[in-house]
Specification:
Blueprint (H helix, E strand, L loop, with lengths): L6 E5 L2 H11 L3 E6 L2 E6 L2 E7 L8 E5 L3 H11 L8 E3 L4 E7 L5 E7 L8
Parallel strand pairs: 1-4, 5-8
Antiparallel strand pairs: 2-3, 3-4, 6-7, 7-8
Length: 119
């Protein structure tokens, strides 16, 4: 049985990156370790660990229940957003992309016709 997991990213700017996710995205600090901050947002655990270079591969995606919540997140992230929320017919989602202080791609989305809770 798997209890869960954490996705870690190397970061050259842990303080600003952690602040972005806690202040703008409402993640909470789940655990502080030497050189690493582990955050929690719903059932997602993700961490940022000090490094000389930032790791920007991949996308950190936050899933919401409604389009209104996605719209609210667009307002909250402000100038970090790369675009306005829009429908993506290929995946049947409503979404937009932003960029965190490290240059990492962040997605905010909702499934248009709902999905069952994975937990």
């Amino acid at each position: 049985m798997t209890a869960g997991g954490i996705v870690f990213f190397r970061t050259a700017n842990r303080a600003a990156t952690t602040e972005f996710y806690t202040d703008r995205v409402d993640a909470t600090v789940w655990l502080e370790q030497p050189g690493c901050s582990i955050l929690r947002h719903g059932n997602l655990l993700f961490g940022f660990c000090d490094a000389e270079e930032t790791e920007t591969e991949g996308i950190v995606t936050f899933v919401y229940d409604t389009e209104d919540e996605v719209d609210e997140m667009r307002e909250r992230v402000g100038d970090a957003a790369r675009e306005d929320p829009h429908e993506n017919e290929t995946y049947d989602i409503y979404q937009f992309f932003a960029e965190d202080p490290d240059g990492r791609t962040v997605e905010f989305q909702t499934f248009r016709h709902g999905v069952s809770d994975p937990l």
